[in-house]
């Protein structure tokens, strides 16, 4: 019997895919992690700063829908697609510190170019994350919930990593500036591209992605069960990316007031976002044992409570840090479960279309809250600005409770609601 190559094992591939996601996703919040430095270097206000993340969100939506429309993951080798996306994303991100810098960044043309480059980065990330999910599914049938949870956990650490890079480089002589973080994030994404190209393999269960039925994109909202699951997802997304964007800034301001070091503030920001990595895996295991909707409702209730109180704790940095880590753990833990829920409830032939609607709607909604938080904060402070995000979990919980009362909910997690 022919012995398998060491790369042709599901656990090895899961580890490699997790590493690729972790490294490549460092691009997403690379600018947000140094927002305060960019505000000074480029004379940016709160709204202009928020656009640095909003442009990535919009790019991701455009990239995801374009990839689905062209069916790229079936036309191109998924490992090569992921490698190319990580490579181009890294190079585009690298143009900001190397090609724009402090002087050109202060001009209208320079800032517009930065937003374009950030948007293109988002487009490229749409070729990394969904493709990684497809490759994980090609290796894992049994235990897929755990595998997907681990991948989302890796994405979470990757999203947090720019804050860690900032903490590490903050006191480096002569190079502890905003540009260093963006350069290092790009280098991590280049490593991700190399791993994807050289080591990642598609599994034996690789299937063609369901084609998008564009006429179904509007009709999906007429399916009551799917609509309620999607409203749960929208409630989750209403909160998630705004929390990831502005939560670390709240910690920085709180630590400054207490005269804590900037390095400790950056590490706290990293811990806040990265806390979700373990929670994603735990939520996947809990969903299989106690029920998917129940697990999601607990996550939404926890994160919503944290959103309500966190901004009011700015003068209590230690207590704030504890609450923020709990918030970071709960705010993303339900993400994979909400996507799984929609795939279980919709017509099996239209899973691709249903997930495209969910992803596009969710990321478009993040644009609203990412832009809203700094505007409200500048007028009435952090307390109200972040408490507004609790509206998302409230809507999500109500929708999922109503979903649990429907007979269709028995399709979820093999009847484990």
What topology emerges from the helices and strands here?
Elements: H1 10-24, H2 35-42, H3 46-70, H4 72-75, H5 78-105, H6 108-125, H7 129-139, H8 144-169, H9 178-198, H10 216-219, H11 224-257, H12 262-274, H13 276-290, H14 292-310, H15 317-333, H16 335-345, H17 351-380, H18 382-387, H19 391-404
Helix pairs in contact: 1-7, 1-8, 1-9, 3-6, 3-17, 5-6, 5-7, 5-9, 7-8, 8-9, 8-12, 8-13, 11-12, 11-15, 11-16, 11-17, 11-19, 12-15, 13-14, 13-15, 14-15, 14-16, 14-19, 16-17
Describe what this molecule looks like in 3D.
- This protein has 2 domains: 1-203, Growth Hormone, Chain: A (Up-down Bundle), CATH 1.20.1250; 212-417, MFS general substrate transporter like domains (Growth Hormone, Chain: A), CATH 1.20.1250.20.
- Helix content is 76%, strand content 0%.
- The protein contains 19 helices and no strands.
- It has helices at residues 10-24, 35-42, 46-70, 72-75, 78-105, 108-125, 129-139, 144-169, 178-198, 216-219, 224-257, 262-274, 276-290, 292-310, 317-333, 335-345, 351-380, 382-387, 391-404.
- Helix 11 runs antiparallel to helix 16 and helix 14 packs antiparallel against helix 16.
- InterPro entries: MFS, MFS_dom, MFS_trans_sf.
- This is Major facilitator superfamily MFS_1.
- Residues 10-408 form the Major facilitator superfamily (MFS) profile domain.
Distance between the termini: 43 Å
- Which radius of gyration do the C-alpha atoms yield? 21 Å
Q: Judging from the principal axes of the Cα atoms, what is the shape?
A: globular
Biggest β-sheet description: none
CATH class call of the largest domain: Mainly Alpha
CATH topology of the largest domain: Growth Hormone, Chain: A
User: Please, how many domains?
Assistant: 2
Order of helices and strands: HHHHHHHHHHHHHHHHHHH
Q: What's the architecture of the largest domain in CATH terms?
A: Up-down Bundle
């Amino acid at each position: 019997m022919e012995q398998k190559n060491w790369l042709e094992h599901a656990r090895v591939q899961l580890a490699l895919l997790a590493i690729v996601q972790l490294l490549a996703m460092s691009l997403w919040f690379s600018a947000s992690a140094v927002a305060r430095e960019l505000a000074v270097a480029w004379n940016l206000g709160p709204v202009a700063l928020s656009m640095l993340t909003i442009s990535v969100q919009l790019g991701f939506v455009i990239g995801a829908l374009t990839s689905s429309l062209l069916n790229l993951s079936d036309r191109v080798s998924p490992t090569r697609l992921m490698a190319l996306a990580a490579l181009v994303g890294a190079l585009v991100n690298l143009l900001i510190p190397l090609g724009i810098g402090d002087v050109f960044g202060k001009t209208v043309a320079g800032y517009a170019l930065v937003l374009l480059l950030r948007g293109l980065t988002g487009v490229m990330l749409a070729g990394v994350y969904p493709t990684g999910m497809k490759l994980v599914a090609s290796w894992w049938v049994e235990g897929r919930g755990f595998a997907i949870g681990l991948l989302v956990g890796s994405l979470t650490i990757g999203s947090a990593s720019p804050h860690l890079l900032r903490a590490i480089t903050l006191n480096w002589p002569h190079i502890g500036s905003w540009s260093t973080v963006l350069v290092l994030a790009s280098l991590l994404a280049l490593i991700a591209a190399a791993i994807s190209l050289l080591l990642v393999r598609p599994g034996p269960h690789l299937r063609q992605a369901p084609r998008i039925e564009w006429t179904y994109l509007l009709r999906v909202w007429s399916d009551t069960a799917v609509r309620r699951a999607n409203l749960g997802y929208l409630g989750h997304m209403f909160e998630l990316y705004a929390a990831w964007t502005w939560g670390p800034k709240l910690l920085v301001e709180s630590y400054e007031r207490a005269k804590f070091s900037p390095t400790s503030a950056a590490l706290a920001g990293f811990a806040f976002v990265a806390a979700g990595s373990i929670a994603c895996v735990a939520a996947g295991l809990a969903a299989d044992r106690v029920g998917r909707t129940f697990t999601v409702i607990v996550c939404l209730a926890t994160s919503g409570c944290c959103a309500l109180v966190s901004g009011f704790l700015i003068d209590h940095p230690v207590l704030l840090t504890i609450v923020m880590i709990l918030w970071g753990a709960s705010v993303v833990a339900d993400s994979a479960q909400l996507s799984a829920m929609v795939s279980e409830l919709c017509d099996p032939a239209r899973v691709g279309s249903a997930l495209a609607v969910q992803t596009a709607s969710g990321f478009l909604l993040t644009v609203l809250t990412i832009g809203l938080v700094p505007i409200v904060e500048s007028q009435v402070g952090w307390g109200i600005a972040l408490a507004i995000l609790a509206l998302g979990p409230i809507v999500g919980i109500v929708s999922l409770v109503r979903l649990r009362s429907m007979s269709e909910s028995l399709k979820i997690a093999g009847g484990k609601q």
